[in-house]
Every structure is written in structure tokens, then in C-alpha cells.
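Re: that backbone. C-alpha cells:
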């Protein structure tokens, strides 16, 4: 007598998805391996899949009821499992309010001074990340940056909400004697 053991399917629907309230499309990228390589998406809401629920990478189109509810759960189930039972994994699509990002007023500082930044992110995740397009910065405390080196007369500071809806603020930097200055801590 021979006993053949086939591996159980592995199913990964992917991480939960956050979209802005009012957006109607969520991109799905499921993964299935081992005892199966195909799957079927189903919804516990009332939207639909485009172009097809049998593609691992497809779009889910939220219905008005899905959006009103604020969340919808999707299920990815393995198909063509051979002798194995189907395996499922779920993900949740959450509609969040559209974030508002305000990086604060423009500032003019000397090249070796500290620029205190006071940005605000409301709605969405409520948190943000500072970055720059030119110049070098170093984070000192939450919302405060120390200018370490200036490579141009102006530094553009960008405050982005986690859903990447940035607001821009230009920080004017005065160059002294055309030399780049830096901030150092003396010990």
C-alpha cells in the first residue's frame, strides 16, 4: 500500500488595506502556493471584483454600502486543492477620512540655526512624516529639526500623512559668506 501526502495549500490574502473615504477601488494581490496555485476571492460586502474574482491580482470595487459601512472583509480561498481541503485567508478594507496636512508657516533662519517645525495632520491616520527634497536634516525631537548642512539657498520641507497626501513648506536658509554652515554640539 502506498500513501501519498500532498502539501496543504498556503493562502495569503495580503495585508489589510486602507483607502480614503470616497475611493472605490482597492488593489488586491493574493498569494497561493504548496498544494494549490489558484484561488477565488469572495466578499462579505456587496462590491465586485474586476476583471475577475478568480485572479489573485485583481481589483475590488466597493459598493456604496461598503463605503458607508467603513470596512469590508474579503476572503481568498484556494481552489484545485487535490485531496486537500480549501484554505482561506481574509483581509479587511477600511475607508478612512481624507487627511488634511498643514506644514505650518514659511520660516527664514540663519544657516546654523535650528528651525522649529510645527506641522499638523488631521483625519486619516493623524500622524505624519517629515522629509526634505534638498539639504540635509536631522531629527532632534518630534516636529523639530536641526539643520546640519545646507546645499542650496532654500530647503523644501515636506510633511506627508501616511497615505501620502503631502503639504509643502519652503524653509529659506541664509548662506553666510557663500560657505555652507553646520550645527555642532561642543562637548
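Recovered sequence:
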Amino acid at each position: 500500500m502506498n500513501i501519498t501526502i500532498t502539501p496543504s495549500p498556503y493562502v495569503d490574502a495580503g495585508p489589510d488595506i486602507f483607502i480614503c473615504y470616497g475611493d472605490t477601488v482597492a488593489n488586491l494581490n493574493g498569494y497561493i502556493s504548496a498544494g494549490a496555485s489558484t484561488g477565488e476571492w469572495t466578499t462579505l460586502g456587496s462590491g465586485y471584483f474586476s476583471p475577475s474574482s478568480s485572479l489573485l491580482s485583481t481589483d475590488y470595487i466597493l459598493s456604496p454600502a461598503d463605503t458607508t459601512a467603513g470596512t469590508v472583509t474579503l476572503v481568498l480561498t484556494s481552489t484545485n486543492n487535490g485531496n486537500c481541503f480549501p484554505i482561506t485567508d481574509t483581509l479587511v478594507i477600511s475607508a478612512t477620512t481624507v487627511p488634511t496636512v498643514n506644514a505650518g508657516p514659511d520660516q527664514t533662519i540663519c544657516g546654523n540655526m535650528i528651525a522649529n517645525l510645527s506641522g499638523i495632520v488631521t483625519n486619516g491616520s493623524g500622524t505624519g512624516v517629515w522629509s526634505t527634497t534638498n539639504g540635509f536634516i536631522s531629527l532632534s525631537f518630534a516636529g523639530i529639526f536641526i539643520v546640519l548642512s545646507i546645499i542650496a539657498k532654500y530647503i523644501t520641507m515636506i510633511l506627508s500623512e501616511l497615505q501620502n497626501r503631502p503639504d509643502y513648506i519652503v524653509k529659506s536658509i541664509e548662506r553666510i559668506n557663500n560657505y555652507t554652515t553646520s550645527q555642532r554640539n561642543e562637548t
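Residues 139-152, 168-187 have pLDDT under 50 and may be disordered. The longest strand covers residues 71-79.
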